[in-house]
Write a structure and sequence with these properties.
With 180 residues, this protein is mainly alpha-helical. It is built from ten helices and no strands.
Length: 180
């Protein structure tokens, strides 16, 4: 059982690291510890390497995003929930890109492999809700949707954020067509 103060320290470190690394990918571990209000020993006990910390920040973000699906579906129609969720995912992918500068190719691979399953599960849940209420076409595939949205973070990083417009085009393609 992890003590509550240890859990709080870990949460503070992850929050501080997410903020610091998003602002500047080369922020040092000591700067992150300072920002989190913990000593270097506490930081390194939780995250023995910079890569371990960056991977944990990313995994924490994936868990947060995928965990929002049930609330979104409870609050709005499936197509709107998918739009909201996808824009959140795009923003996280942009942040990940900043974090990713600090990672080796093998860590990038691990990050992608760790997040693929939970992200596909979340997309499946959103698409299935839309298929159930007939707002999303029956042949919509979660893997295809993820691949299509992969380009959105690049569009979001451009001087003019084109991601919402591009996402609208993708979602229009997912819309179930009325039967004639």
């Amino acid at each position: 059982m992890v003590r509550s103060d240890a859990r709080e320290n870990r949460a503070r470190i992850l929050t501080a690291a997410r903020e610091a690394l998003t602002e500047n990918g080369s922020t040092s571990m000591n700067q992150i510890a300072q920002r989190a209000g913990v000593g270097p020993g506490t930081l390194y006990r939780n995250f023995p390497t910079r890569e371990a910390l960056v991977l944990a920040v990313y995994q924490d973000e994936v868990t947060r995003i995928t965990g929002t699906v049930p609330d979104l579906l409870a609050e709005m129609p499936p197509l709107e929930a998918l739009r909201t969720w996808t824009l959140d995912l795009v923003e996280a992918m942009r942040r990940k890109h900043g974090l990713g500068e600090a990672l080796s190719p093998s860590a990038h691979q691990a990050m992608s492999e760790q997040s693929y399953g939970p992200v596909i599960t979340a997309i499946t849940e959103l698409l299935d809700a839309g298929k159930k209420d007939a707002s999303i076409r029956a042949d919509a595939d979660p893997g295809d949707f993820l691949q299509l949205t992969g380009a959105l973070w690049r569009a979001a990083a451009a001087p003019v954020d084109r991601a919402p417009h591009m996402l609208a085009l993708v979602l229009d393609g997912l819309r179930a067509q009325p039967r004639h």
